[in-house]
Sequence to fold (221 residues):
Amino acid sequence: MSTFDVIFWGLLLIALIVTTRIATKREKKFAATRDQFIAKHSFIEDGYVYSEISNHGFSLIDKASGNYGDYEATNVLSKLKGTDEFFIFDFRYTPKNSDKSTASKLATIRAVLIKFEDRELPNFELLPENIIEKIKQVFGSSDIDFEKYPDFSKKYVLRSSEPNSLKKTFPERLIQYLESKDGIFIEARKKCLLIYKDEGGEFADYESLYKEAESINNFFR
Fold:
């Protein structure tokens, strides 16, 4: 082995050790933050939401390749707040268009599911506007716009199987709130809300997601 090879493999080994230590340190720091969040908001590490996600046909599932077995709901935290049940969980899935080299690498989206019995919402989906959604609209995909709030309508796509009902009842305070927020997904299915952001992966911040979900839920009271 030449001197160059020794130096090369030595540097590679050092880089691997440093990278591993940084990753381990980040994981420990995040675990501590998660524990603090659980204690602060009185969550328990328990709950089962897989059937809720599947049975309600949330569009979140569409991010996964295939159907049954290509996604899971793990690391579930739950709490009862008044009459509302809150669940925070990790939606782990095989992304669409994964090839053989990446199929085993699951992506993660942290989400909040809220179940309630004191009200009923129209079914709807709200998601960030992007070029794909704009193309879909050209070919007839629906999008509920609010003339009074053009910034909201440019930033988000809102669609529903009950568009007229939703347009009359969609909270104005929520529209104003979302105008200053980016990247939020909201799905409603009569007696529940699903809220998430497609960012952060397994290290997505619990506190900010929970606070946003709490605010959004309150707008529908």
